[in-house]
Amino acid sequence: MINTMNEKHTIERHSNDDKADDARVEILEQYRQGASLASLAEEFGCSQRHARRLLRRARYERIAELPLDYMPSDEFESDDAERRILSPLPEPEYSPRKARTPSGLPPYLASLYEVALLTTEQEKHLFRQYNYLKHRAAALREALDARRPQARAMSEIERLYDQAAAVKNQLVRANLRLVVSIAKKHVGSPEELFERISEGNISLMKAVEKFDYTRGFKFSTYATWAIKKNFIRSYGDRMKRLDRFRTSREELLDAAVEQRSDPYVEQRDQQRREADVSRILDCLTHRERDIIGRRFGLGRKDSGETFKQIGDDFGLSKERIRQIEQRALAKLREAAEQQRIESAA
Prior knowledge:
Blueprint: H1 2-32, H2 37-43, H3 48-64, H4 81-85, H5 107-111, H6 120-142, H7 151-183, H8 193-210, H9 219-258, H10 263-281, H11 286-296, H12 307-314, H13 318-344
Helix pairs in contact: 1-3, 2-3, 3-7, 6-7, 7-8, 7-9, 8-9, 11-13, 12-13
């Protein structure tokens, strides 16, 4: 009886935690879209004071997760650092020659060649700016009081982070044609081009985050190495998956030839598997179970739905559906591990 009561309280606590998480996320999303505190309080049926408290907590949790790693530099501590580092992008000494667009590229890829390349001075200026903005934001975040984070300080951190993200996008756009150039040399067929470009873009974004501009090297050299390294790793992973598929298929075929399957044993094993899955899914809330089922096509003939499709039905954003899916998967992993421990006991 005591165990039953404890389980009930645990479920209620998780349910209340989920509701509080949902409320904070929704309030933050609407606030960032321009909703006033009064309208948020009215929509969520609470006082403005409570809405402000939920909003403050949601903002703090988001800020705590911001990726603010940066490349340090002594020049960030100079008295004129802000004025000098955040100054406008320097004009090139000469007008860059317009790049020739390779033939046969789709319009989207061809448009990349209209973005002007950066000079060495411009590139260093933007990387200095990018890391300085994250340095400033990280220092402010370190000084935040987790119990009562100041709204003004959080607004400044969000502003600095948004500026850093804009600078990063500028650096990425100026180097996208580099990705196309490398990807074209690592495809076996035209159909693979977009997949390789997508992989290369991810490598490029990571390279911007990790590039140490203070060492004096050109970014294109570092980015080319990072992109090629990822292509080689991806190719190796694809070959391993293909080999595993071939080996597994051959083993299955051999087993099918060597022995006939027992339909009664198969039915019993299938029922046992379904019971195990059902027990694991019981750890989820109704909404989490529904989202996981729709995402992975459980009990359906299709292969699953997108975040947008599910979000439209629930009246939530794609990002919120993704967060709920991650939380549910974490619960499932914990439940599966617990069941494995109990089965071994």
